[in-house]
């Protein structure tokens, strides 16, 4: 069966913008986040406190959060943190939730975090424990769950091990990342079947490189998942992963879910208008099919 309601976790402002070639002004990011909240989103990942030399696009994280002010009641505004230094910067900015991230492959752990897989798990456990001691909520990502550009196929048992490590570290939501968009419905089921963590705690995070993100989402929902990550207008990519393109577009997701009678609390028309506006800011059309159908460029 399918869930009655899906939690949409909006990553456009973070995953979407981290890979942009042109520097997006802080004021535009402020307006983007405000528009996402106004559209009804209750989980908006706003930015990252990673090393600014690694991701210059999000170097304005503190200024952005300062301009946004505290998250409105009932709205989660997590930020991505890679280590203790990132957590300290997040705490100084007054955030209430952080997202930590690990990889299911050794190569990507080294390229994205400059650590071995086991070193990165030890580090994120420390960071998650410290965050929870400060009263913060913690989300956890596993990257490269369905394939890796350097290592090829990924063993679902390794994904399960990393997901369990995140769960043990106190992550209340564990997002399975298809960082380069190579998952297909069969590999999604294989990974979900291998997991040991409760499916209530699982989110899926598909990049749409090969056009499979919606099919993958549907099969994940049929297997008990009820939290889906997506990015306004299909923004996104990962600067440290070859061939990573945009995330599943929020509008494409909403179109499918709402027509299935699944509620999200997010307004499709407001999202289309937001992504059409964002496309003019970035100077290129959105890759979302639904944005282009409803608001032709
Ligand atoms: P490192 O170079 O090994 O850092 O990077 P270090 O610990 O050796 O520290 C070196 C210097 O950096 C020190 O300064 C630190 O203070 C500073 P110095 O003493 O030389 O003056 N530093 C920092 N400064 C600001 N904020 C920080 C920070 N940390 C250290 N947080 C590190 C290691 C983890 C920091 C680096 O590899 C990094 O920032 N990586 C993040 C890369 C990234 O953001 N990738 C994209 C996000 S993940 C993703 O997109 C996937 C996802 O969407 C899911 C999916 O699709 O799969 C989530
Ligand atoms: Mg991603």
TrEMBL record:
Alphabetically sorted, this entry's keywords are:
Lyase, Metal-binding
A GO molecular function for this record? Answer: lyase activity
Q: PROSITE patterns attached here? A: PYR_CT (PS50991)
**What domain of life does the native source organism fall in?**
Bacteria
Q: Which InterPro entries match?
A: Aldolase_TIM, HMGL, PYR_CT
Q: Transmembrane region positions?
A: none
Pyruvate carboxyltransferase domain location: 6-272
The record's annotation in NCBIfam families points to: PRK05692.1
Provide the family line: Belongs to the HMG-CoA lyase family.
What protein name is recorded for this chain?
A: Hydroxymethylglutaryl-CoA lyase
Organism of origin: Rhodococcus antarcticus
């Amino acid at each position: 069966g399918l869930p009655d309601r899906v939690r949409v976790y909006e990553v456009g402002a973070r995953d979407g913008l981290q890979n942009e070639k042109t520097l997006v002004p802080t004021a535009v990011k402020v307006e983007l986040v405000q528009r996402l909240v106004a559209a009804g989103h209750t989980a908006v990942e706003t930015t990252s406190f990673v090393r600014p030399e690694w991701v210059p696009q999000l170097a304005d994280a503190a200024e952005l959060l300062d301009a946004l002010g505290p998250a409105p009641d009932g709205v989660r505004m997590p930020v991505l943190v890679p280590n203790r230094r990132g957590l300290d910067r997040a705490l100084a900015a007054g955030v209430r939730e952080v997202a930590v991230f690990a990889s299911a492959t050794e190569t990507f752990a080294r390229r994205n975090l400059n650590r071995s897989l086991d070193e990165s798990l030890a580090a994120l456990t420390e960071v998650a424990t410290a965050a929870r001691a400060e009263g913060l909520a913690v989300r956890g990502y596993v990257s490269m769950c369905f394939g890796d550009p350097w290592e090829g196929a990924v063993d679902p048992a390794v994904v399960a091990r990393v997901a369990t490590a995140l769960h043990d570290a106190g992550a209340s939501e564990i997002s399975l990342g298809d960082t380069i968009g190579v998952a297909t419905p069969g590999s999604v089921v294989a990974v979900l079947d291998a997991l040991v963590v409760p499916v209530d705690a699982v989110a899926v995070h598909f990049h749409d490189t090969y056009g499979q993100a919606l099919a993958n989402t549907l099969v994940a929902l049929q297997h008990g998942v009820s939290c889906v990550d997506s990015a306004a207008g299909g923004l996104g990519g990962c600067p440290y992963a070859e061939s990573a393109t945009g995330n599943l577009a929020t509008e494409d997701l909403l179109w499918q879910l709402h027509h299935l009678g699944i509620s999200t609390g997010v307004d499709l028309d407001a999202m289309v208008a937001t992504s059409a506006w964002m496309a003019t800011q970035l100077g290129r059309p959105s890759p979302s099919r639904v944005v282009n159908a409803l608001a032709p460029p």
